[in-house]
Amino acid sequence: MYRVGVRNLVKNKLYLCRDYHIQPSEIDRMPFFEYEYMLEDVKQIQKEQEKEQERQQKEQDNMRHSMNPNTMMRGMQQSMPNMSSVKLPQMQIPKL
Predict the structure, then answer these.
(1) Are 60 and 53 in contact (CB under 8 A)?
(2) What SS3 class is residue 5?
(3) Closest listed residue to residue 28, CA positions, set 44, 5, 43, 12
(4) Which of 14, 51, 66, 76 has a CA 20 to 30 Å removed from the CA of 1?
(5) What is the CA radius of gyration of the chain?
(6) What tens digit of pLDDT does each residue of 14-71 get?
(7) What residue ranges do the domains of the chain occupy?
(8) How far is it, in rounded angstroms, from Cα 18 to Cα 62?
(9) How far apart are CA 3 and CA 36, in angstroms?
């Protein structure tokens, strides 16, 4: 038949109960093959979530880099004309 480590069985039940809000009694009522299938599906879902989190983290890192004030200032300095070449109009204020 099946050979199951009791410690792993209890730990897996704890994770299922905590993360998926399943009562321990419901897990105990399941046939063992159903429990194993559920664990496989949970592991697959977790891997997909980890990949999605990594993708989102990379996007956020790219956004942070593009929004960095130092990077933005360098870009503005390159696109702005040199301020010494711009001449301001001279105004004369009458003295009273």
Answers:
(1) no
(2) coil
(3) 12
(4) 14
(5) 32
(6) 988 998 899 999 999 999 889 889 999 999 999 999 999 999 999 998 888 777 776 6
(7) 6-71
(8) 34
(9) 13
